[in-house]
Amino acid sequence: MHPKLLKTFLAVARTGNVTRAAQEVNLAQSSVSDQIQALETELGAGLFTRSRQGLTLTPAGEALKPYAEDLL
Fold first, then answer.
1. CATH code, domain with 11
2. Checking CA distances to 49, which of 3, 16, 37, 58 falls within 20 to 30 Å?
3. Where are the alpha helices (DSSP H) in the chain?
4. How far apart are CA 71 and CA 7, in angstroms?
């Protein structure tokens, strides 16, 4: 699990929005989406629930968040 992916994950978790997270980590929106998808594939679990109101963490995302915070 690459630290860059975890940094992007935490930005999306914090903002609940891929566009704002992309601005925070200085990446294109598509790159953030690709990184989240790569992390979800690597872990074999969805990390976010997507809705019109934004993104919220799934139970797997909630479990990953403190681990990512500790690593970074």
1. 1.10.10.10
2. 3
3. 3-15, 18-25, 29-43, 59-71
4. 10
Range of the domain at 23: 3-71
- pLDDT, position 48: 98
Question: In degrees, to the nearest 5, what angle opens at C-alpha 72 toward C-alphas 20 and 31?
Answer: 35
What are 17-71's pLDDT values in tens digits? 999 999 999 999 999 999 999 999 999 999 999 999 999 999 999 999 999 999 9
- The reported pTM is 0.95
51: burial class by Cβ within 10 Å (0-12, 13-18, 19+)?
A: exposed
Domain count, the chain: 1
